[in-house]
Every structure is written in C-alpha cells, then in structure tokens.
Amino acid sequence: MRGGLWQLGQSITRRLAHGDKKAVARRCFASEAELKKTVFHDFHVANGGKMVPFAGWSMPIQYKDSIMDSTINCRQNGSLFDVSHMCGLSLKGKDAVPFLEKLVIADVAGLAPGTGSLTVFTNEKGGAIDDSVITKVKDDHIYLVVNAGCRDKDLAHIEEHMKAFKAKGGHVSWHIHDERSLLALQGPLAAPVLQHLTKEDLSKLYFGEFRVLDINGSVCFLTRTGYTGEDGFEISVPSEHGVDLAKAILEKSEGKVRLTGLGARDSLRLEAGLCLYGNDMEQHITPIEAGLTWAIGKRRRAEGGFLGADVILKQLEEGPKIRRVGFFSSGPPPRSHSEIQDEGGKNIGEITSGGFSPCLQKNIAMGYVKSGLHKAGTKVKIVIRGKTNEGVVTKMPFVPTKYYKPS
Amino acid sequence: MCLEYILFLLNFKFSGVIIFTLPLKLMTWETHTYGVIIWRRFRKKEREMACRQLWASRAASYLRISVFHRSFSKVVKDLKYADSHEWVKVDGNSATVGITDHAQDHLGDVVYVELPEVGTAVTQGGSFGAVESVKATSDINSPVSGKVVEVNEELSNSPALVNSSPCKDGWIIKVELSDKGELKNLMDSEQYSKFCEDEDSKH
C-alpha cells in the first residue's frame, strides 16, 4: 500500500492544478524532461527549491523554509515568487478595448490608462474560462496575465474570437510576452525594497495601477497587484535580466524578503480569500456565484455584450442558486471536494479549497453552498473521511488584505 | 595493505602525534608488528570518530539546521519499516507505530493527526488514520495487524510532535500484535535507507 504518505509532490500538484482534467492527467505522466523551465530554474535549485511539476512547468513548491514559515514571513517581511509560468499578453490596436470587452466582464473602456482590474473570461453559458488581471496601458494597448494551466485554452479562445473580429474589420493584434519573465514581490517590504532599484516614486503607484519603468537597469512592466492579500508588485522583466533582478531584490532586503514557492502561495491566497482557477472557479461557475459580482462594470450590467451576458445578467437580477463562501472549521483541515452539510445532515454544497492557515493557526476553507445558507455565522458540517466536523460560514478575506490604496 | 600502512606512518607524523617515528629503513619485524597494532587501533579510533560525526549530523538534521540535502542518517536502527513510510517498534507482543523522519520531512508542518479509537482492529498495510500537513493529506497505514491498545493523545494538542520527534514522542498508536510473523514483511533500517534513496532519486 503505497501512495499514502507518498507522492506528495504529485498530490500537491494535483491539488493546486489549474485547468482542465485532461491537461492534469497529461501533466502527471509527463516526464521531468518534458517540463518547461523558467529562466529562474537553476537559481531555484541553487537556493534549495524543491521542484515539482505544475501546469507543465517545473516550479518550486518550497525552498529551505517550511510552508508555514514562508507564509508568515511573507506577511511579516516579504516574499519573492517566480510566476513566469503565467502567460503575459498584450492586445494592441485601436479596437483592442471593444474586442476585449466581448470576452470579459470588466468595464475596460471605463478604466483610466495605467490602471487595471481583476476580471473573468466567460463562455456562452456565463461560466468562467479563466480569471485574469487586465491593465489598460493606453487606449490601444491592453496588458493581461492569464493562468499557466489555462494558457492554451485561453489563447485558443482569444484567437478564435480575434479572427472573427478582424474579419468584420476590427483592428486588433496580440503579442505573447514569451521574451519576458514574471516575478511577484509581495509583503510589507515589497515597496521599500523595490524603491531601492528604481528612480520612479512608488508611493504614487496605487493598488491596481500599472507603469512601464526602469528597474535595476532594464525596462519592466510594473503592476501593483498580487495574489497574497499583501501590498506588492508583479514585475514583468526581460528574461535575460530576470535572475539579476531577483538577486538584487533579495540583496536589497538584507535577507528579509525570501524566495517563496507555490505551497506558501496557495496558503497566502487562501487566507486572502482569493480564488484559484480550477478549484474555486470552473467552466460551469459564473462570476456571480464565485462572488465576483463587483468585477462586472456598471456599464456592462446595463449593456451586457460579453459572452454569456444573458445568463449572468439574469442571475444578477434573480440572485444565484449557489454562492462561494468561506468557512472556519474544527477537526482536520477541509480539502477540495469535502462535502458540506446543513445542521440536519443534508448536503448543501462542496469545499473547493481548504487548509490550515499558518497565520491564523486554524482551519480555513472556501466552497459553494446553496443560497440562503451563505450568511456569515451559519453553522454547517463538513465531512472529511466519513466523519462530520463543525464548521461556520465566515466572511472573507480570512486575513485582512493590505492593498496600497490612496487614503 | 603495505602501502596503506606506509601512508599511515607518514600521516601519523604529519598529524603531529609522535608515537611512532622510526625511519622506514630502521624497520624490523618487531617494529612493524608494533606499527600494525598501533595502526589498527588508529583505524578503530577513526571509525569511532566517523561515527561521532554521523551523530553530529543527525543532531544537526534533528534541529533542522540543514533540511536540504538530507542524508538518511536518521533511520533508527532497532525499528522495522513499511514501504508506505511508517515505523514499528516491537516490544514483546506490543508494537508502537509512527511515521518516519523521511515521511515527516516530505510532508512538512503537520497540523492534524487523525487518530483511531482504542479497540479498533488494524491490518498490515491498511489505513488507520491520516496526517494533515499544510501541504497535503496522507493516510497512515499500519505496518502490523492487531488491535489498537493506546493512541498518542498528545498529538491532538501538539500534532507538530510528529515533525520534531517522529520516532519517539511523535508515536501514533500502540498495537497488540495478532501475528508476529508479519514482521518479516517489513524492512530493516538498512533496507529502508536504501529504499528512501531509490525513491527520492526517482522524483
């Protein structure tokens, strides 16, 4: 009987894996040689990174620190993540904005140049194809980053619609930023450390804002965003300067900002109540059900004009049947697919992500329950390995977010 | 052997401990015999030192000074091991069961241990509980068959004992053995060390 305590690298990959099941299966069988490597691969290994297959890439799950310590260090000091497996994309042309608006729920036209937002790519049924952070660089240039596990699917989807759009005379083209690498610098030391490496005043760059600027001697795309709930940045750097930048960041922080792997990244985003596509959001889940109603622009609610708008706008009016909520629970930490029951033992939904929160030192989870049972304070039971455990619906984020917003 | 001995003589001189400093040309049969005796004693001492160094490295890894690049020096000698990474310590008809240092190291911070109830029957290779870490959930399989006579209640409050002391304070259950013959299906420390090395090299 193997596999119990074993295959942990594999199991975590499966748990974190984005995207469709077929791709997951393919990934699990992919030999190490087939895995793609980021420009930081050797750097990770030299720094003690434990590499695991993730969405077709060889990525560090953790370094020398435990996931617990890494998570706490991110909130106390800071973390540097290699997120180059994610796909950066630019849409250019005078019709880039109307084109993108057909595919996402955001009010892209309403974004001021140099600002961005989290958004969702929807399908005809109103389900989520992927979530993505989009930025309007200029009126004719959108920069966006999509999930590694959804790359092929997303690009095919965009390409198909782009062909049709162009055939009707629309002006839009794309550029996939494979020449760049992506680093995420997160935590309270992110801004002071990065300020050492650029002349631009970062105190004027607020959450969700974007700038093209010189960092450590190379032209970078800087977005004040992240996936941890902390203040921080995602830095798109020309790949040949990536490792130098990573070294400079670690050096300027005097060892306080530490390299952090996917394991802590998952704990951090869960504590911040953020969705992981493939777990907490899937093809059949609408943005309303996922609790992302706020991401639908006001104008878009009135006008629609994106894929699945009829379904989504109807849900907006009538209210969704299921909703994503957070939980605290006792007993073992809930994991995805744990059953949720009401107090009477009736099935009311399923956990989609869960674990032990390193910062709160208790179990946290998110999942979908029937509307009506979604209010904070509702008592539920969570079934883990056949045993029921006490749980309670809780507001998210579990750990308060610390985004840098104008006061 | 002869060359090794001569090297040993030279080495001995260099090390500054001058007990045996006869030039090689003055060597007689007696001095040679003496030399060999001293050499053997020296070799024994060397082995003991190597052993102490091993202990030091064990202590270091115990204190998590170096988590990376672990050797499998922490495989405790008098235990038996299952290929699903549990250990068992047999004392008469009673067996104590836990997960190995290698397993806890791969799991990372243990946050919950699901214990069976006293009186539960366990079978060799069958799951009787689970370990939850920040990273993942894993079943714990029993390396032996029998009846659970005691569970480590300490783990309810301090699951991290499984990390800090996997083979001692972090024990999980005690089992009254129903078939001692099953023990031959398990690995000894040497086989288990090798098993871990092989398994890690595959990943």
Protein traits:
heterodimer, A: 407 residues, alpha+beta, 6-stranded mixed sheet, 6-stranded antiparallel barrel, 11 helices, 19 strands, disordered N terminus, B: 203 residues, OB fold (Dihydrolipoamide Acetyltransferase, E2P), 2 domains, 37% helix
Describe this structure in words.
The complex is a heterodimer of chains A (407) and B (203). Chain A is α+β, with helices and mostly antiparallel strands. Chain A is built from 11 helices and 19 strands. Chain A has helices at 8-16, 21-29, 41-46, 67-76, 96-101, 151-167, 190-195, 242-252, 262-271, 298-303, 309-318; strands at 50-54, 57-62, 78-82, 87-92, 115-122, 128-138, 141-146, 173-176, 180-186, 210-215, 218-223, 232-238, 257-259, 322-329, 339-341, 347-357, 362-370, 379-384, 387-394. Chain A has a 6-stranded mixed β-sheet with strand order 10-11-12-9-3-13, sandwiched between helices. A 6-stranded antiparallel β-barrel of chain A has the order 14-17-16-15-18-19. Chain A has a 5-stranded antiparallel β-sheet with strand order 5-6-7-4-8. In chain A, strand 15 and strand 16 form a beta hairpin. Chain A is globular, with a radius of gyration of 21 Å. The relative contact order of chain A is 0.14. In chain B, the strands form 2 sheets. Chain B has a 6-stranded antiparallel β-sheet. Chain B has a 3-stranded antiparallel β-sheet with strand order 4-6-7. Chain B has 2 domains: 3-62, no CATH class; 80-201, RNA polymerase II/Efflux pump adaptor protein, barrel-sandwich hybrid domain (OB fold (Dihydrolipoamide Acetyltransferase, E2P)). Chain B has helices at residues 2-14, 29-62, 101-107, 154-157, 161-164, 189-202; strands at residues 80-81, 86-91, 94-99, 110-114, 121-122, 127-133, 137-141, 146-151, 173-177. Chain B contains 6 helices and 9 strands, in the order H-H-E-E-E-H-E-E-E-E-E-H-H-E-H. Classes of the chains: A alpha+beta (407), B alpha+beta (203).
